[in-house]
Description:
mainly alpha, 7 helices, 83% helix
Amino acid sequence: MAIINLFIGLLLLALGRRLFWLFVGCIGFVVGSNYSIALWGLQADWVILVIALFAGFVGALLAIFFQGLAIGLSGFFAGGYIAIVLMNMSGFGPNELFWIIYLIGGGIIGAVLVAVLFGWALILLSSIIGAALIVQTLSINPPTNIFIFLFIIGFLFQTRLSKKKSIAPK
């Protein structure tokens, strides 16, 4: 799973904005992976992988066929994931506020951000999630400096790609 998480983190850092269906599929994979462990206490890697792949596949299909719904859901799940990651990075472990922070602190804010500022929100969210996945997977301690560095690199790279795409003649 570590290699897959690193690969997904790198994909999100580099191409989260450019390939919306990839962003939504990766968010589905991350959510499926994390919550199959957190909610059901699954331990077998192959079961977690199957659930994560299924969630990623469903996310990618949503992005292709139901883009409006996928935009809202991906923003919600990405925002919730980011809220929990930032909470953990600041030293707060899981507690009774988990769902409140997930729903309000991240989910709703993420959904609104993606709906209102689609392109910029995708760059921001995919850069944050890509950096977080890489830092979590490599168990870097303290994670803050590397996280910020990876986030900035991903944000700048995707911003540059977006500008090249919009300037290029059609």
